[in-house]
Write a structure and sequence with these properties.
Number of strands of chain A: 0
Shape of chain A: elongated
Radius of gyration of chain A: 19 Å
Structural class of chain A: mainly alpha
Number of domains of chain A: 2
Oligomer: homodimer
Chain lengths: ~200, ~200
């Protein structure tokens, strides 16, 4: 049974460990020693797999950023009325958050002290702009409640969606879990609340 | 013109300074020296006004906690259908966030490493429970969209409202400000989006 031990040496498993450590201690507060001890590797074996912690950070953040941008290129996000495209993007953004929860959590907590972090913040801003533009377009097409400022709607939408990383936990682990909520149901709830409101 | 200098010695002004420093560096990372240098007082004059930084933290957090609980005792929060009481509480919660922005920001960032912080977290949980109970009651009365889980609605509501401390800045200062948005308009936007949705 050498398979589990062998797996620890994959970049994949190393990434999982690194993301957990970065999220817990903060990227700045994580040393290569911390990563070595969390992964059960010696520091020199660690350097055999990666150049340094910044490379792991970049790989981890790409796992969040790439699927988010992929969403904006899906047919549902590129054709039809803006309000429908917006709904598609919001729904799929929730899907990505759930599928890539540790990676998106890290993305949302990045500070911007290093080049990779600044790159990540830029990507977040670029994604936010795509959503903001959709909200504005939907408003221009008359599909957003006229009394709502599109910029404020965008912020509130992100506030709602990004809060998922604080309280949503898959399969009932941890505090405040919603164990019986499947990802698709969660995306439905967000879309329903945001687009049609909680009031019956 | 000795008034501005004199004012620095009020507990009030000391609190303002302390909240800004606690929020920037974290409560754990703030020393009495930091508070002394930020307030322009010597450490011994500081001790003349307060017993220690924990007292300042408590006073600061009370400025957030007390008005939040006061909201739950207002007539609009205690009589009528649950959905109307919920709407009242959400609207007034936004008012409090805006009026007490630095204090509520601090409240939302507290970690729970000291007795005062744990007290604050307990107060937050107690307030969250009041809102959660209102959502459930409104759902029981048939006024919440049936497909929405009350626990999830509560989380999403808080996600939306609490995000205000990240992006709302009064009078156009700072990044991402919405300068032309008056507090009442902001509360309207939150209530409209949450209760009726963004879709026209």
């Amino acid at each position: 049974m050498t398979v589990p031990a062998r797996r620890r040496y994959d970049t994949e498993s190393l990434l999982e460990v690194a993301v957990a450590v970065f999220t817990e201690r903060g990227y700045d507060g994580t040393s290569m020693e911390d990563l070595a001890s969390a992964s059960g590797l010696s520091k020199s074996s660690l350097y055999h797999h990666i150049e340094g912690k910044e490379q792991l950070l970049r790989l981890a953040l790409e796992r969040a950023v790439e699927p988010l941008f992929a969403v904006t290129r899906e047919p549902g996000a590129t054709s039809g009325r803006a309000i429908e495209r917006l709904e598609h993007v919001v729904r799929r953004e929730v899907d990505v958050l759930v599928e890539r929860l540790p990676y998106v959590t890290l993305l949302l907590r990045v500070h911007g002290n290093t080049e990779v972090e600044r790159w990540a913040l830029e990507q977040r801003r670029a994604f936010d702009k795509v959503v903001a533009a959709l909200v504005r377009e939907a408003a221009d097409e008359g599909d957003v409640r006229a009394e709502l400022d599109p910029a404020v709607v965008t912020r509130l939408l992100f506030g709602m969606i990004n809060s998922l990383v604080e309280w949503y936990r898959p399969k009932g682990s941890g505090r405040g879990a919603h164990p019986r909520m499947a990802p698709a149901q969660l995306a439905d709830a967000v879309v329903r609340l945001a687009f049609d409101g909680l009031r019956r």
